[in-house]
């Protein structure tokens, strides 16, 4: 089995560009919430370091891991793939193609192949290609 076969047979839904963009506000909301929580945790850790640096750092590291895991799980529940820090891929209706979003973007404007990563992202030049839906009728 090829490393990227996981994307073709993983039970995750395939999205049109419109469908993925409709889910994006929830992805953005979840991402903004976790970033705010991470910033709050950092401020708490910095103030706690004045009293006990090692304990404060360990507590912070655990909080960060739990927050990122929770964010990842929430993204998966939406039907998307969490990637790295605040990058999300959506399986496209086009075989072996992912729609790609990263924090700071207001809509999905990039894509890449399933065996590629963020640095291989390409702008979507013809959005209509990613807009078709298959019909079983």
3D structure, described in words:
The protein is α+β, with helices and mostly antiparallel strands and 137 residues long. It has one domain. β1 and β2 form a beta hairpin. α1 runs antiparallel to α2. The protein starts with 16 loop residues before the first helix and ends in a 14-residue tail after the last strand. The relative contact order is 0.17. The N terminus is likely disordered.
In percent terms, what proportion of residues is strand? 5-15%
Q: Distance N terminus to C terminus?
A: 32 Å
**Percent of residues in helices:** 40-55%
Instruction: Label the structural class.
Output: alpha+beta
What order do the strands of the largest sheet run in, or round the barrel if closed? 1-2-3-4-5
Outline the fold blueprint.
Blueprint: H1 17-48, H2 53-77, E1 81-83, E2 87-91, E3 97-102, E4 110-113, E5 122-123
Antiparallel strand pairs: 1-2, 2-3, 3-4, 4-5
Structure summary:
The protein is an alpha+beta fold. It has helices at residues 17-48, 53-77, and strands at residues 81-83, 87-91, 97-102, 110-113, 122-123.
Descriptive terms for the model:
about 140 residues; alpha+beta; five-stranded antiparallel sheet; disordered N terminus
């Amino acid at each position: 089995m090829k490393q990227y076969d996981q994307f073709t047979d993983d039970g995750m839904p395939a999205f049109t560009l419109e469908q993925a963009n409709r889910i994006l506000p929830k992805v953005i909301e979840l991402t903004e919430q976790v970033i705010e929580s991470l910033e709050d945790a950092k401020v708490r850790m910095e103030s706690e370091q004045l009293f006990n640096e090692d304990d404060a750092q360990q507590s912070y590291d655990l909080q960060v891991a739990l927050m990122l895991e929770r964010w990842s799980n929430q993204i998966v529940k939406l039907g998307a793939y969490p990637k790295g820090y605040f990058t999300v891929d959506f399986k496209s209706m086009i075989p072996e193609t992912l729609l790609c979003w990263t924090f700071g973007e207001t809509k999905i404007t990039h894509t890449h192949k399933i065996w590629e990563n963020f640095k291989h992202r390409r702008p979507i030049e013809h959005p209509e290609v990613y807009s078709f839906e298959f019909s079983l009728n």
